[in-house]
UniProtKB/TrEMBL annotation:
Source organism per UniProt: Heliomicrobium gestii (Heliobacterium gestii)
Protein name as annotated: ABC transporter permease subunit
One Pfam family in the UniProt entry: ABC2_membrane_2
Keyword Membrane: yes
Transmembrane segments: 17-40, 70-91, 112-134, 154-175, 182-201, 263-282
Amino acid sequence: MFSIARLTFQEASKKRIFLLTLLLSAVFLGLYGAALHLFAKEFVKIQSAPGGVQLIARQVIGQQLLGAGLYFSSFLLALLALLASVGSIASEIENGLLQAIVSKPIHRREIVLGKFLGYGILLTVYALLLYGGIMLLNGHYNHPALTTLTSGNLIAGAAVFLLQPLLLLAVALLFSTLFRTLTAGIVSVLLYALSVVGGFIEQIGGLIDRSDLVNTGIAVSLVIPSDTLFRKLMSIVAGSNSSPLASLAAGPFGVTAPPSNLMLAYIILYIVASIWLAIRVFKKKEL
């Protein structure tokens, strides 16, 4: 298993999609930092406003800027997790590479687990660097958005941020055992898009107090809960659970109803179940 993981890590780190994602991440962080710098200069101009108005404006705008940074970094993570791993098994079946591997004394479950571990380590390192970059930029230019952030919440936020690519990785591996590479890629991307739409539907439902929209969003999150992790992340790092300005700062990147810890437990079980199903399917698959 560990040999498969090492080879997977080495192969994935050389893929064009990984190098392209690194380039896009560097460009994104540069543009995001420049935008935060400009907004920080604008915040100085509203210091003449009454204290309460100034506090509310900086808090509301600051949380939206923080949310935008974490949202688009989550998108980059999803891009890498899906596109890099969705053909990890299907493409090797198609080109006959796995036939040579399974002929050796190695269990098929070790192949699936090794690939999950290899990609998981790569995504974890990338996610930590991206999360650290976003939080450092906000700490420097957008400190009001982090006034309620504790070191414990910072670490908890990092853990939730890491769950996002691991969830999508588990789903991509499952579809890679079920379908051909192109089909697996299309289905994985569509599911991710469904999660994004469901998250916005639930967010809008919470803002206008429509329980039917909220329930629709929750139903979608049970099918593919990637957007739920982003909302949980925002509730942790932006203090949406306790902030009196949470309703004002909700917006497209905020949280109207923070997901519960029970939902986190469901997501962890979802990841485990996806890997278990991938192993079961791959064991029975004819190569």
